[in-house]
Each structure stands twice: as C-alpha cells, then as structure tokens.
C-alpha cells in the first residue's frame, strides 16, 4: 500500500530513508531545518557521499514522490512520520535527546489522528515508553524502528537489511505492521518486539561491534610481543561461524558517528540500572590506547624512538575519514592521530578520496595521493581505502625524503612496498609470515 511518509532530518539516516521509501513507491516529504541543505536537495544535489543516493534522490524528485522542505507544516497529512534526528553524546555518556524532544513537543499541534510516529534515531532505552506521554495524544501510535545501515553502504543496507526491527506496545501492533509494510518484500526477518527490546538491540549491536574491534586491536599488540601475525590469527578465528570473519581487522581504533557514542551510551544505561558492564569501559579504554599506540608507532618509525621529537618533520597521511567509503570525519581516529602528530610539531599533508578539506592549520589536504609523499619522512595509512593498495610505490619512494611506511590498517602488500625500498610497519604483523 502506498503511504504518505514524513521524515524529519535529512542526514545519513533521514535522507536515505526518504529516498529509499520514495523509490519503493511511497509519497515522501522530508523536512530539515538546514535551509541550505534543503535548497541543494531541491535541486537534486546531496552533500554526503553515499553510493546510489544521489540517483535515488533525483529519481524521487522527477517522479514527484519525494519533496523537501524546511516547513514542518508540510507534514500535517502524513500517515507515518519518521524521526531521523541527531542524538549526540551528552553528559556522562548518555545520548542527548534534546533535539528529538523539542521536535516531538511540536508534533501534537501538527499531526492528524492516526499518524504513526516512528523513532529511527538511536534513542536511549525507555524513550519509546516516554514518547507517548510527551506527545500526550493517544491517537498517535509510537513505534521504534532502529536503523542499522552502515555509512558508505547506506542505500544498499536500507534496501537489503539484515533485519527489520519494530518495537511497539501490543496495542500499537497494527501501527508497527504498517511501518514494516513500508519496506515491501526485502527477504529480511521482520521482528516485532517491545520498544525497550528494539532500542536495546540497536545499542547492543553497535557496542558488540566495538568490543570485537577492540578485542582484535589488543590481540594485534599481543601478536607483536610473541611474533605471531594478526592476519593469520584473525582469519583463523573468523573461520569459526560462531565468531565470523567481519570486524576482525586491527586499525587505529573504532570511530564514526555511532560506535563511540552508542558504546558510551550503553555503558551509561547499564550504570543507571546498577548493572556492571565493565567490559564496555575496557573496550573504550582500549580504543583510546589504540590511537595513542598508533601515534607512538609512527613516532618510532620516523624518529627511532617512541617519544622522539616530530618538530618540523613532514608526514604524509593516506586517509582521514573514520573508515573507507565515506568522507565522514566525525569521531575519526585518523583525525585524532593527525591532531596528536601536529601537536608534536609534525607538518602534515593528507590525501583521502572522500575528504576535500579539514581545518587548514592542522593538515594540508591534497587531491593527489602522490603529493603526500613529497619530502615526507614517513607515509602513514590511516583509512583502508582499497585504492591505496594499487599506488605506485616506486613513484612514492622517489618523492619521499625517507622510505618509511606505517600501515595502520594492514592494508598494503608489505612485499610490494618493500620492493620499492620502503621499510614497512603494520599492526601485529610479522615480516616473515609463512601462512598463505
Ligand atoms: N549515520 C549512520 O550511519 C546512522 C546509522 C543508524 C542510526 N543512526 C542514528 O540516526 C540518527 C541520525 O543520525 P544521522 O547520521 O542521520 O545524523 P545527521 O547529523 O547526518 O543528520 C541529522 C539531520 O537532522 C537535521 N536536524 C537537526 N535538528 C533538526 C530539527 N530541529 N528539525 C529538523 N531537522 C533537524 C540536521 O540538519 C541534519 O540534516 C542518530 O540517532 C544516529 O545515531 C545513524
Ligand atoms: O574490522 C574492523 C571493522 C571496523 N573497524 C572500524 O570500526 C568503525 C566502525 O565501522 P562501521 O561499523 O562500518 O561504521 P558505521 O558506518 O558507523 O556503522 C556502524 O554504526 C551505524 C550507526 O549506528 C550502524 O547502523 C551500523 O550497523 C554500524 O556498523 C570504523 O572506525 C572502522 O574503521 C575496524 O577498525 N576494524
């Protein structure tokens, strides 16, 4: 059934939801309070790099199934309203729901009876139970429908989800079924549960992913100590289907707009319930240590000492985004490491296929990977863009002042890099690895 869908917030989640639901045949109106963003979207221009999203936005505009506005009144006759607003890290780790609550407070005067209010934002456990009170309109059913898309794969994940989660009271079950029907036939399990379970499942998934990465980052350190190779250890772990191969690559730490804030929020939620979830605290500490460890490794490689001075030393960075496939710099470990190196006096040049600029006094961003090597004392891979593997290392070696590579993503083929004369340092890798 074709529904009139309203979306508030045209960011990663809101814009993707709006464009995908229009693609699935619904009539969608997407509201954002950022005038310039709405102006661009109206012309079919999007500011985030998500494969396929611009095409879907243009398709929606052309078919007139998708409209953008800054005016909340345009939402007055929608059947379903998705809240896709930011819930950033607040005091003590809690998610800050002020924006969401301010918007919710305006809805009773806006919506027609029967409109289903859906939280797609990641919201603290208990929000679904509180929203009906805040709304004060029993004729507006509330459903929790957490979103699990990954940045860089937003459209693909939205249209082919692993699961669709609907949290509602038994009384609002029909409303939850209506939300589920918006997605059409995806083949994914559609799971009806209570609001608290839906909300907790979202936090639990992100925090678990964070734990997995911290686990492998610590293992990489252990590998260095005992002469083992994390690439083999991770691979051998991942062959066990109970563990699975994903999220077992060491790196400069987990970042982005979700894992850090959601792990902190789950820890806080546990504390508030008097539950000791110390394993999350440990994972967060390990994550902070990981950034420091990578910075030390770079210092060591450049100066020969883990506390050596970087004053005036040129370092070329390959990658700035928190992961490959996105230009998102929010909570990026690469950026945090760049800041640390700059604080130590290093002069930084960076190339990232997804990033055009950052604060100019921190790092000079160039649009050609070969420019980062110019007079550099070291090249550091901080984001795992696959194209870095195919760089011409001979050409980079010619431009660099010293042939040192720190591969903080274990992305490169160490043999190819070594053939060009570079010294290669990875994370938890062994130069004489024998397993293939
Ligand atoms: N980014 C992801 O990959 C992802 C995935 C799953 C869930 N989430 C969750 O979804 C929520 C949104 O995240 P996001 O990454 O899409 O955020 P975002 O910052 O990309 O987008 C939020 C949008 O809301 C708009 N906005 C802010 N205040 C507004 C207001 N009062 N009225 C109208 N519009 C307003 C902003 O202008 C912005 O366009 C968060 O809770 C996040 O944790 C994010
Ligand atoms: O083996 C790995 C895998 C990931 N990472 C890092 O972990 C972080 C998070 O990666 P990813 O989970 O892919 O990023 P997001 O796009 O933020 O997606 C997460 O956060 C979203 C917002 O809640 C959820 O919807 C997604 O399901 C969840 O994967 C990044 O810094 C990655 O570089 C590693 O270091 N090693």
TrEMBL record:
SUPFAM superfamilies referenced in this protein's UniProt entry, alphabetically: 6-phosphogluconate dehydrogenase C-terminal domain-like, NAD(P)-binding Rossmann-fold domains, UDP-glucose/GDP-mannose dehydrogenase C-terminal domain
Record's keyword annotation contains Oxidoreductase: yes
Active-site residues, as the UniProt record annotates them: 258
Entries under InterPro entries matching the protein: 6-PGluconate_DH-like_C_sf, NAD(P)-bd_dom_sf, UDP-Glc/GDP-Man, UDP-Glc/GDP-Man_DH_C, UDP-Glc/GDP-Man_DH_C_sf, UDP-Glc/GDP-Man_DH_dimer, UDP-Glc/GDP-Man_DH_N, UDPglc_DH_bac
Pathway it works in: Nucleotide-sugar biosynthesis; UDP-alpha-D-glucuronate biosynthesis; UDP-alpha-D-glucuronate from UDP-alpha-D-glucose: step 1/1
Keywords, comma-separated and alphabetical: NAD, Oxidoreductase
Similarity remark: Belongs to the UDP-glucose/GDP-mannose dehydrogenase family.
Protein name (database record): UDP-glucose 6-dehydrogenase
